[in-house]
Amino acid sequence: MGLVAQLYSISIRSYPAVLRLVAPFHAKARRWLTGQQGLLDTIAHTLNHAVDTRPIVWFHAASLGEFEQGRPVMEAFRDAYPHYRILLTFFSPSGYEVRKDYAGADYVFYLPIDTPDNARRFVQLVKPRLVFFIKYEFWANYLHELHRANIPVLSFSAIFRPNQLFFKPYGGFYRQLLRQFNHLLVQNQESVDLLKSVDITNVTLAGDTRFDRVAQTVATVRTIPVAEAFKNGQPLLVVGSAWPLDMDVLVPFLNQFAQPLKVIVAPHEIDADTIADWQKRLIHSSVRYSDVDPTDLSVLADKRVLFIDNVGMLSSLYQYGEFAFIGGAFREGLHNILEAATFGMPIFFGPIYDKFQEAVDLVAEGGAFPVRTVDELQLAFARQYADRSKAAQITRLYVQRNIGATARVMDVATKILSDRHDAEQ
């Protein structure tokens, strides 16, 4: 075993120990550790006692964002191949806890940690006919076991950058992981070129399945009477997935903005104390969604800011907006901007967005606007407030012309299943 492989194994085995140290102070770490307890035995019991004996395909998503990215493919696969069961795994509690009851999968589990023994037992238990890894998933032992068992593996909505280890002179271990995939479906031409530079050619430029997902969202958007009454025909800014660092810029901006503007804030994490602090810092009147009586919406008339203290509503809230600010790009990682873009509006976010292709594209085209300070937000927002029509058209058309990745993923999956069926006859 090479040095890098040894370091990989050490880091994988050390991960639970590290989380046990922080678990007393970190709820997410506690949930992950609890989820891993007896996990393989639970999977074995569930599958061994299943009455349904249809073959299984396995989808793996790191977290909730990757799940939403993969959901159109899962649903398309279900429609095309109803004679298969779908098994879905998550690495992160933020994905598993929200989607553990997802009706589009027959089974939903945490992913057992990637040790050789776990990977071997998991593959033997599940016996997947086909595996889909969504975006950034490169688990060495799972890939090795799947390759050894001659089980085809696809990666879709993947994106690669020159600074990744795959493309470094010392990145041989990581390049070998890429060679375990039967096919890589990537988001952009740069990824195709980078993979070709290291002699990986089983690649398709398929695009990003998130565009298909947001198109589905628009088709199934639901009416939210509280939001409609709150807007009351006025210009509306929807703040999606706000973190404290985002609000450190937004609060002083809102306190100084003098034009008519309603604001809906959907925090990334629902924490009553944090929301209360934001309310205190705002000079404008505000209300929490949970405090609104749906039978008496008159309380909303004089409110400037509405805080959403629940989950699952954000994608439908964008339909009421003329502008969007998407959180996470000051440190944590930019959240989904496509849900806002599909409704056609200028989009604002923090300065750290270069790893998100859609953000890079929309900034270049003039539909999105990164800001670092309150002053920069004031300037950028004032310009769009005066005339948002151009940016709104740019964002809407950007989504429309990028729809179709799911069909390209399914074309590759269908060919692999067909070839495998022919080889077994």
UniProtKB/TrEMBL annotation:
GO terms for cellular component: plasma membrane. Its main location: membrane. The active site is at E66 (proton acceptor). Its EC number is 2.4.99.12. Pathway: Bacterial outer membrane biogenesis; LPS core biosynthesis. GO terms for molecular function: Kdo transferase activity. Involved in lipopolysaccharide (LPS) biosynthesis. Catalyzes the transfer of 3-deoxy-D-manno-octulosonate (Kdo) residue(s) from CMP-Kdo to lipid IV(A), the tetraacyldisaccharide-1,4'-bisphosphate precursor of lipid A. This is 3-deoxy-D-manno-octulosonic acid transferase. It comes from Spirosoma oryzae.
